[in-house]
Amino acid sequence: MNHLANETSPYLLQHKDNPVDWYPWGSEALAKAKAEDKPILLSVGYSACHWCHVMAHESFEDAATAEIMNRHYVNIKVDREERPDLDDIYMQAVQTMTGGRGGWPMTVFLLPDGRPFYGGTYFPPEPRHGMPSFKQVLLAVIDAYEHRRIGVEAQAGELTDALQPDLLGSSADALNVDLLAAACTGMGRNFDHDNGGFGGAPKFPNPMNLEFLLRCHARTGADEPLTMVTHTLRKMARGGIYDQLGGGFHRYSVDAIWLVPHFEKMLYDNAQLSRLYLHAWQVTGDTFFRRIATEIYDYVLREMTNPEGGFYSTTDADSEGEEGKFFVWSKDELQTLLGDDARIAIEYWGVTTRGNFEGHNILCVPNEDAVIAQRLDMTVEALQERLAAIKDRLYAQRTHRVHPGLDDKIVTAWNGMMLASLAEAARVLKQTSYRDAAIRSAEFLLNELQQEGLLLRTWKDGRAKIGAFLEDYANLIDGLIELYQTTFDGRWFAEARRLADVVLAQFLAEEGGFYDTSDAHEQLIARPRSLQDNALPSGSAMIAKCLVRLAAFTGEARYADAARAALAPLAGAMRQYPQAFGETLSAVDLLVRGIDEVAIVGDPADEHTVALVDVVQQPYRPGVITALSSADVPAEAEIPLLGFRTRKDGAPTVYVCRHFACQMPVTTPAAVRDLLDGRPIP
Q1: In which domain, by residue range, is 332 found?
Q2: Ramachandran region of residue 214, left (φ > 0), alpha (ψ -120 to 50) or beta?
């Protein structure tokens, strides 16, 4: 028995019965390494990681390998989703050692004081493809540690020095419209005009970059950014990366055409992509995008929501030991299950006897509905009606299969992202169920993942743990701001503002910008400061975006000043490498192009007030914030934007302000639209 049995992480619990004497990261393991002068073997992964499972089966379940590990090392297992700080620090070290290569499982060898000196990712049980076996690595590393210690110490020192954040100097003047235009153009250079997305295989959705391109279109009217977004979203949703039966996106495509996914499903991907498809529908009015957004929301609420209102983290890529087995079909299966309808399914999803994935078929949509309908001698409407019934039958049949593993821990940052998307969808799509789910989510997060006013990172089975990181605060603040603008319940705004003040008190760097960890966090060999987007937006970018909006709601310059100080040093990097800074560029967009501050006074149940709110919130307006009071506010309000706002002639009234100047109040939807679209009021 190792030391993982009492952990809450599903990933750590997957290893509790290994013969390896695993410890969780903590004082006990670190003290043991120092007391016994043993190197630390740090293994980092996550529950849905396919190659993590492979290495666990090949090596960590092997008694001979475990014996070497237990004799020579203090072995620490870390869930990267629980501890992004450790993952970030040691991934940087591995990438430094391997010329930029990284991934999971991550295997790093540390001195007892935590400094890394050697590492890599997956190691096979036997030598293959030019890689040494894991046992060979274990023996070679301990030999170096015991007999060439001076060299090992020197290597550890050099690596640790390289982990300190390297901030690029730049002035706030570099944050301008020219930067945004250059970034928009720069993203287009790597665009795949045939298949959508950026670059070749493997291909990731990159929702932050697509969102920025959508902003470029909304702000400038340029067609090319919108074409890049809509082309990509269509290709993705028609590909195998999208679950054609159950909704929701898999993590990424191993090819350039979105066909063969890595089959894990992550909450954070679906939170971002649901919001992006929602925005695409707002911009284009194309119901295809609305349908995909709705299918994602319905999938999350059906399969990824716990009874308390939180959202689960991940579903695995594997079931019954095979990647993708849960999701694929044979032609014979479809013919047996569907009878006469099989010809429709086979034609629509391009199913063949040979298959497109290891002898089976990943369902995808290779042709437009109109083309398929013509081939089947049907109308498009009839095709879609029959397909809806076919999907229901196949989905019901699929529920009888062995499901992929579920990582049911609740991560604050990812839940904040899903909260934001659901809250926005609730008001745009007029869906009460989404509104109710968003409120339950916010209540759950604030009740269960908060202690003495500070957030915690994860929750599972009633236990919350680990002080929250910058990305947790930032994404929850974003979600609360969106929920306020959907419900106009002031408690959500008050919580968002209070949490932002915690960030400014505990995460702010003296020279400007933010650390990923708070001042109260345990001291590590480096204080991480992630500035680029990865699968998630950087915490720094998200908090900057939130602070710019809070400045608009409150009129307090300290929020905007903190955002500007965080963004300015990255101006040169954003111009040179725009694809690494999609969320940061969206924050710059708010800061540079400004925010329309909309204050509404009127009964939210009154149809005239609703019409005013709708003209503000139904279109895609990324540079607008909205506050509402049901009664006249003759003095300062809890939300300063609402202060001194009163009805005009007793009618529901809208005030629009921008750059510290307010327009005359208006009372009709047409007048509000003209103000927000920049047209003069007659």
Answers
A1: 327-400
A2: alpha
Q: What's CA 419's distance to the chain center, in Å?
A: 12
DSSP secondary structure letter of residue 174 = G
Q: How many other C-beta atoms can be found within 10 angstroms of the C-beta atom of residue 384?
A: 14
Question: Over 70: is that where the pLDDT of 651 sits?
Answer: yes
pLDDT in tens, 122-139: 999 999 888 899 999 999
Residue 67 falls within a domain, yes or no?
A: yes
Residue 583 maps to a domain: no
pLDDT one-digit tens code per residue, 618-645: 999 999 999 999 999 987 788 999 999 9
Tokens (6 digits) for 681: 């009021």
- Asked whether residue 570 is domain-assigned, the answer is no
Distance of CA 610 to the CA centre of its chain: 32
Helix (H, G, I), strand (E, B) or coil at 344: helix
CATH number assigned to the domain comprising residue 116: 3.40.30.10
The DSSP call for residue 624 is: E
What DSSP designation does 359 have?
A: T
Could you tell me if 483 and 423 are in contact, meaning their C-beta atoms sit under 8 angstroms apart?
yes
User: 293 pLDDT band (50/70/90 cuts)?
Assistant: very high
pLDDT of residue 102: 87
CA 101 to centroid of chain Cα atoms = 22
Domain end residue (candidates: 120, 143, 162): 162
pTM tops 0.90, yes or no:
yes
Cis peptide before 202 (omega within 30 of 0): yes
Pairing, β 74-79 against β 40-45 = parallel
Report the Cα 22 to chain-centroid distance in Å: 29
- 246: tokens are 């159950």
Last residue of a domain, one of 115, 145, 162: 162
Cα–Cα distance measured from residue 544 to residue 471, given in angstroms and rounded to the nearest whole number = 11
Is 515 contained in some domain? Answer: no
- Residue 635's pLDDT is 78
User: For residues 64 and 136, is the Cβ–Cβ distance under 8 A?
Assistant: no
Confidence of residue 33 (pLDDT cuts 50, 70, 90): very high
What pLDDT does 260 receive? 97
Instruction: Specify the pLDDT at position 196.
Output: 97
